Amino acid sequence: MALDIPLQLLSEHLVFAVLEREALRMLAFAAERKDLSAGNILFDQGEAADAAYLILEGQVSITSVRAGQTKRRETAQAGALLGESALITPTQHAATVRAETATTLLRLPRSAYRRILEEFPRSAVDLRQKLAERLLATVGDLDTVRQSLED
Fold first, then answer.
1. What is the pTM of this model?
2. Does 2 fall in a domain?
3. Dist CA 58 CA 134 (whole Å)
4. Number of domains in the chain
5. What does the alpha-carbon distance between residue 121 and residue 135 come to, in Å, rounded to a whole number?
6. Is the residue at 13 inside a domain?
7. Does 1 reside within a domain?
8. What are phi and psi of 72, to 5 degrees?
């Protein structure tokens, strides 16, 4: 698709920021444009996830069902990345995403992302490092919450 998409928009997200410039261009070229009308569902909670989606225009609502209750989690707009973890590992969508307005997204398939990481091993090493840093920060945050609950 989409060499016309601004590479800067992609590089604002960790999973793309680690990519070398040529790798980022290849990913943009492999991306697919997806247009949704207001009310259309992008994906449902529990569905297999094989791609991430970058919102180019529009707005979506993100809802999830827990204990039988549907809860609106947030609204996402242009620039937001949805389903980031699907680029790295097979997973299921943790929420349902529905277009609130006419929305244009960029579908970034896991298969293309993995192929690019194989072709650009330095990017793969950088990604591993950044994910390790993120994991350590999350563990630290969880430990802080645990300690506050124990007090």
1. 0.85
2. no
3. 29
4. 1
5. 21
6. yes
7. no
8. -75, 120
